[in-house]
Amino acid sequence: MGFITEVKTLIKDNIRDYGMYIALVVILLTFTIMTDGLFMSSRNISNLLDSAGYIAVLAVGMTLVIVIRHIDLSVGFAAGFLGAIAAIFLTQMGVSVYITVPAILIFGIVAGLFNGFLIAQLGIPAFVATLAAMLIFRGALLRVTEQTGTIIVNDDKFNALGNGFIPSLMEVNGLHLLSLIVGLIGVMLYVYSEFSNRRNKVKYKFDVPSKGIFALKLILVSAVIAYITWILAGYNGFSWTVVIMLVVVIIYHFMTTKTVLGRHIYAVGSNPEAAHLSGINVKKITYIVFGSMGMLAALSGILFTSRLQSATTTAGTLFELDAIAAAYVGGVSSAGGVGKVTGAIIGAIVMASLTNGMNLLGVGISYQYIIRGGVLAAAVIFDVMTRRKRG
Amino acid sequence: MSEYILEMKGISKEFTGVKALSNVNFKVKKGEIHCLIGENGAGKSTLMKVLSGVYPHGNYDGDIIYEGEVQKFSNISDSVKAGISIIHQELALFPDLTVYENIFAGNEVKRGAFVDWNQTVVEAQKMLKKVNLKVNPETLVKDLSVGRQQLVEIAKALSKEVKLLILDEPTAALNEDDSENLLELLKGLKQEGITCIMISHKLKEVISIVDKATVLRDGQTICTLDAADGPISESIIIQNMVGREIKDIYPKRPNKNIGDKILELHNWSAFDVELGREVVKDVDFHIKKGEIVGIAGLMGAGRTELALSIFGNPKSYKVQGDLLLNGKKRKFTHTKDAIKAGIAYVTEDRKGNGLFLLQDIKSNVSAANLKGISSNGILNGNEEIKVATEYKKSINIKASSVEQNVGNLSGGNQQKVSLGKWLFVGPKLLILDEPTRGIDVGAKFEIYTIMNQMINEGLSIIMISSELGEVLGMSDRVYVMGEGRIKGEMAIEEASQEKIMQLATH
After folding, report:
1. Which candidate in A120, A231, A274, B5 could, as Cys together with B30 as Cys, close a disulfide (CB 3.0–4.6 Å)?
2. What is the pLDDT of residues A1-49, one digit of tens each?
3. What is the CA radius of gyration of chain A?
């Protein structure tokens, strides 16, 4: 009885956070049933995650931008343009991939800082400043691809970022060994961190959830990690895109939840004036958030170019809106100060699942847009309703 | 029909537990200029909001009898239709529209379904003539001086065929010429039979113009003075304004231990670029270790502006003069410098710019001193809970846990969270801006007790307050501010409510 009520209050208190996980599970189950299991096949899931990658990294950055009450419309064509620059570096200039990738990321930071300058220093509304940047990047993309048209990239290492998989070492029963090991390490790290958290709390003499709940959480999350690993190991294992995505999420999740910088970002988002009066440099935070957005836009451009193995004249079109949609599905609030990085990733996966599932079912593109729009609206309505109930 | 155009009978209004008005009676004769006087928070503005329908019928107790009938306004447009217009302290004009557009905003001159702009200009000119304002109706309102903007507001009221005009502190932002002009105009309107209720802190003005003056105190009507019964004197008004006895709600501080000067200001001025005027003028000020210095004054006296100009100047005023901290000249370019130097500022507007309402108690307590709960930029969440829980206990924040959202706490508890946040910074000098605004008596006492504890620990406190009782009850020394200047300084032994009011209203 005690256990059940504890679970109930836990769900009630965290309905906002759990909402999108529940939604994701419902979507996955629905498609799995409707496609007779095809949706959950190793190959499809691997594909789905790879196709979500370049939007997911944008959504992570966009979440922070929206948390501090701004918006960045330039990221789509910034990604397209920087992806094209990467292609030019690799093909026409013969720069090594090991120099190209960091260089492009730095270009991205510079571009983001320029947006930050317009917004923080000159006080131009983010919507307008980044709209201008979007047009500039679009022009720049056309400029560099005008003469050659699509630039084909032949660099295998670069193309592996969007298409390749981590080496397998050896196959066990047709399963990808290294991926299994990575998954196992993931589970172990997770269990270890949960135990050490709990130990620390006990050391401080704080309340901890009951043993039953603790065990349930451990088993549930470990099972999810194990299941995903098993599915992916059944095809080609973890792709580089998934690995990059995971690294980005882990770094940003840590940064937002465990560091002073993260706390400052949320403080600026929830009340800029109070943040200023608390000794937080609001301008600096704005620069950092837009700089990080620029870097992630560059990363998105690299992933997309690599996935297509080429830079096209229209690369990046509407990425920014997909990223914004993913961030909102992931629970960010335009009123500022609320939104999680993990939510953004889930949001991106929800949107990618919808596209992928409906493609499998052969749903017409016209209906696809309508349904995705409906899901976005439903997510935000859910968010507003749950917040109203609590406030 | 009775000789009164307006009778407000037994008006009471409560805000979540705090009585703003209790059983107020207020009568205004047709064609008179009637002044409403009282300290900040006495209930003047609330009463006028009840009258003009900002607080709809049913939201207050009592009756409004206007032109012989009980009125049940459910919003502002109802009262406007009945001929009541209110002009607030902050003008409600559209700065980027022209004078004529402003005068008829919401009350457009129409021909058929369309606005007749030519006729609008003609009508606007008539209204401008009535208020003696000689400007081109095509001028943008933002290009007019504040005094002229006020006249546009009055013209706007006249265009709606106003019978009862309410002015909330009409001359607060005006220079003397403009004030005089406005008062003359009010006299002129009186001749045309327009009744006028004026809220004002400037007693000289009040005396020069009014037929009657009603004094409010603590949400109650104290008296109505009639100029017909002989001239109204300032001293009578002040006596009635402050007449309350100071109840024993201020805890005593037995052993005073006052040390050296910790902060000094010399020829300190601050120019607000946005407003385009000086908000702090030529201030000389000091505070010693272990001292509570009260800064009294009326709204708009420049007290908060003074505090902000000391506290790292977050509003980017153009600041002139010298600031000495422990005898050394200092200059703070950001709030974080001031915090580092040991200054803390607890804002008057805790919801607006003090707290992070969507965040929990612990994040609010740690917000200004994340260093205290982190190492190398990485937070220790458990340490944060520990610290916050300690403050929750020591200053008695009533909440289920430190993980409760601050937005759901009562005003008093929110204020305590604010205090906890700034105590955690470990300040030497604490600036409290209206520390007990909107808080019930019990919580007030607790906050005073905390203040005394801090003084005992060697802090110094600057307390900005509009509550004279609080200023007199808690301070060791009092400054009175008005119009951005220090109007007077006195030791607590010499201070009295009358003296402070006298200085503040001049």
Report:
1. B5
2. 577 887 888 777 777 778 788 889 999 999 999 999 999 999 999 999 9
3. 22
> Using a CB-CB distance cutoff of 8 angstroms, which residues of chain B are in contact with residue A204?
382, 385-386
- Taking domain A20-164+243-386, whether its CATH number is 3.20.16 is answered by no
Q: Report the pLDDT averaged over residues A217-224.
A: 92
Question: Residues A77, A264: contact at Cβ < 8 Å?
Answer: no
Same CATH topology for B4-242 and B258-342+427-506: the answer is yes
**Which segments within chain A are labelled E, that is strand?**
151-152, 171-172, 175-176, 310-311
Token pair of B413, please?
């508890």
What DSSP string describes B460-504?
EEEEE-S-HHHHHHH-SEEEEEETTEEEEEEEGGG--HHHHHHHH
Write out the H or E segment, with its range, that includes residue B225.
strand B220-226
Which element (helix H / strand E) includes A61?
A: helix A42-67
- State how far residue B259 is from chain A, nearest Cα, in angstroms: 28
* pLDDT, tens digit (0-9, with 9 covering 90-100), for B343-352: 999 998 888 8
Quickly count: other Cβ atoms within 10 Å of residue B71's Cβ: 17
Contact in structure between A305 and A163 (CB atoms under 8 Å):
no
DSSP result, B244-279: S---S-S----S----SEEEEEEEEEEEETTTTEEE
What's the CATH class of domain B4-242? Answer: alpha beta
Q: Which residue, among B313, B315, B358, would best test binding to A if mutated, counting the most A CBs under 10 Å from its CB?
A: B358
CATH no. for B258-342+427-506: 3.40.50.300
Query: CA distances (Å), A168 to each of A171, A182, A246, B3, in order?
Result: 7, 11, 18, 98
- Rounded CA gap, A24 and B165, in Å? 60
In a 13 Å sphere around the CA of A337, the CA atoms on its Cβ side amount to: 18
Cross-chain residue pair B358–A267, CB shorter than 8 Å: no
| Cα A7 to Cα A1, A202, A210, B148, distances in angstroms | 10, 21, 10, 65
Q: Average pLDDT of chain A?
A: 92
What one-character-per-residue DSSP string does A25-49 give?
A: HHHHHHHHHHTTTSTTSHHHHHHHH
**H helix runs in B112-264, sequence order:** 117-130, 146-159, 176-191, 203-209, 234-242
Residue to test with chain A: of B340, B346, B379, B423, most A Cβ within 10 A: B379
Q: Is the CB of residue B199 less than 8 Å from the CB of residue B1?
A: no
- Residue where the block lists tokens 């005094």: B147
Contacts of B357 in chain A (CB under 8 A): 270-271
Residue A281 touches partner B, C-beta closer than 8 Å:
yes
**Residue in the structure block whose two tokens are 């950001």:** B334
d(CA B390, CA B384): 10
* Pairing between β-strand B212-217 and β-strand B33-37 as defined by DSSP bridges: parallel
Residue A270 to residue B421, Cβ atoms within 8 A: no
Domain segments of chain B as ranges = 4-242, 258-342+427-506, 357-426
For residue B390 the two structure tokens come to 């300690």
| HSE-CB of B62 using CA atoms within 13 angstroms | 21
DSSP assignment of B334-357: SHHHHHHTTEEEE-S-IIIII--T
Q: So what's the ipTM on this one?
A: 0.86
Q: Among B506, B505, B475, B468, which Cα is nearest to B490's?
A: B475
- pTM exceeding the 0.90 threshold for the entire prediction: no
The total of other beta-carbon atoms located within 10 Å of residue A17's CB is: 14
Q: A120-129, A222-231, B225-234: lowest mean pLDDT where?
A: B225-234
Residue B430: partners with Cβ closer than 8 Å, 6 or more residues away: B343, B344, B346, B422, B454, B459, B460, B461, B462
Could you tell me the residue ranges of all domains in chain A?
A: 20-164+243-386, 168-238
Taking only the tens place, the pLDDT of each residue in B35-74 is 998 876 678 888 998 998 888 888 899 999 998 888 899 8
